[in-house]
């Protein structure tokens, strides 16, 4: 009796990835012509370029921009890095989105690293990004010094600082005029008749947070209000702001108006006032907007930054540097807006 052994079927081989030669053959042109079209070089007719792009689409060909750029004289990798603090603040998500959208227009990939405040972890991530031979790096973290990047900048890496000032490195900085914004919000409260003010802020060691505090105090002094009678509570997150606003409002001589200097702090203040049932008695102006603030009663009056404009400006600056702009480093301040919704227009009970 003969036993047949079933034949072993070889697993199907994965389809071959199309290459530039396949595109050239389908389009009926030379490989150099395909390269010129992909890299947007001159001396290619529109009709030929269209045939090449049609072949690329039909084959599903994906140009290796990194390898191609490294072969060219400028040694571009078409990648930039973005280092951001791991932060639940939605402001940063919008900034990152705007940077990525602008980078896409430049055929550039954005590699993002979220940092947790651990210095050693930050150094490892920074080295990992640098090892990829980035064209540029966006720093959007509360780092106290950027001096470790000076050598990379000397080697040709373009660097832009977001929401802070460069320390130890000569680079562009893009940020909102937060000091003027805080002064505007404080002035608005004073114009409603408030003299008993409170400032609730986040980590005061961060540059932009300290600038908001300065703007608040600038306007308070300008209005002739005794600083010793102003309540200042700092180094808060949402939960600490919630607990502290309850304690302050239940203390002696509580404020009639609060300026909250950061979006998470604002959330904590909102929760605290609502817990006490004081949301219609105590005026509130917060820094940074939220898509839900207009749904509350009263709506939350805010000083609003424009994260999209910040992200676009950051990307434009870094691509300008990558493309050869050697002008002196610039500090770009973007304006902010006062959005009135009700909470900041509450007048003091005695006025």
UniProtKB/TrEMBL annotation:
Keywords from the UniProt entry: DNA-binding, Transcription, Transcription regulation
Q: Do the record's keywords include Transcription regulation? A: yes
Q: Which Pfam families match?
A: LacI (PF00356), Peripla_BP_1 (PF00532)
Task: Provide the transmembrane region boundaries.
Answer: none
The UniProt record lists the HTH lacI-type domain at 18-72
Give the span(s) annotated as Disordered.
1-22
Cite the Gene3D superfamilies for this sequence. 3.40.50.2300, lambda repressor-like DNA-binding domains (1.10.260.40)
GO molecular function per UniProt? DNA-binding transcription factor activity; transcription cis-regulatory region binding
Question: Could you confirm whether the keyword Transcription appears in this record?
Answer: yes
Q: What is this protein called?
A: Transcriptional regulator, LacI family
Which organism's genome codes for this protein? Paramicrobacterium humi
Tell me the lineage of the source organism: Bacteria, Bacillati, Actinomycetota, Actinomycetes, Micrococcales
């Amino acid at each position: 009796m003969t036993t047949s052994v079933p034949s072993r079927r070889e697993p199907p081989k994965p389809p071959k990835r199309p290459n530039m030669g396949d595109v050239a053959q389908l389009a009926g042109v030379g490989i150099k012509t395909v390269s010129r079209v992909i890299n947007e070089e001159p001396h290619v007719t529109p009709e030929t370029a269209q045939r090449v792009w049609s072949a690329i689409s039909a084959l599903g060909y994906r140009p290796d921009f990194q390898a191609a750029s490294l072969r060219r004289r400028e040694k571009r990798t078409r990648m930039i890095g973005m280092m951001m603090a791991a932060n639940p603040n939605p402001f940063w998500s919008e900034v990152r989105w705007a940077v990525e959208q602008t980078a896409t227009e430049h055929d550039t990939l954005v590699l993002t690293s979220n940092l947790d405040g651990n210095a050693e972890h930050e150094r490892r991530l920074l080295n990992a990004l640098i090892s990829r031979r980035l064209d540029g790096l966006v720093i959007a973290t509360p780092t106290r010094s950027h001096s470790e990047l000076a050598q990379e900048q000397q080697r040709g890496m373009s660097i832009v600082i977001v929401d802070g000032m460069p320390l130890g490195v000569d680079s562009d900085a893009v940020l909102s005029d937060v000091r003027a914004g805080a002064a505007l919000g404080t002035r608005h409260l004073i114009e409603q008749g408030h003299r008993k003010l409170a400032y609730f802020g986040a980590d005061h060691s961060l540059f932009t947070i300290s600038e908001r505090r300065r703007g608040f105090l600038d306007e308070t002094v300008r209005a002739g209000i005794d600083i010793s009678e102003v309540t200042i509570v700092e180094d808060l997150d949402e939960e600490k702001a919630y607990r502290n606003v309850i304690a302050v409002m239940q203390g002696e001589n509580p404020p009639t108006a609060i300026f909250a200097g950061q979006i998470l702090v604002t959330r904590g203040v909102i929760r605290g006032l609502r817990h006490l049932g004081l949301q219609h008695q105590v005026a509130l102006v917060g820094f940074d907007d939220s898509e839900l603030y207009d749904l509350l009663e009263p709506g939350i009056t805010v000083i609003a930054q424009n994260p999209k404009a910040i992200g676009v400006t950051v990307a434009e600056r870094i691509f300008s540097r990558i493309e050869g702009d050697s002008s002196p480093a610039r500090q770009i301040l973007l304006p902010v807006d006062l959005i009135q919704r009700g909470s900041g227009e509450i007048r003091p009970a005695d006025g």
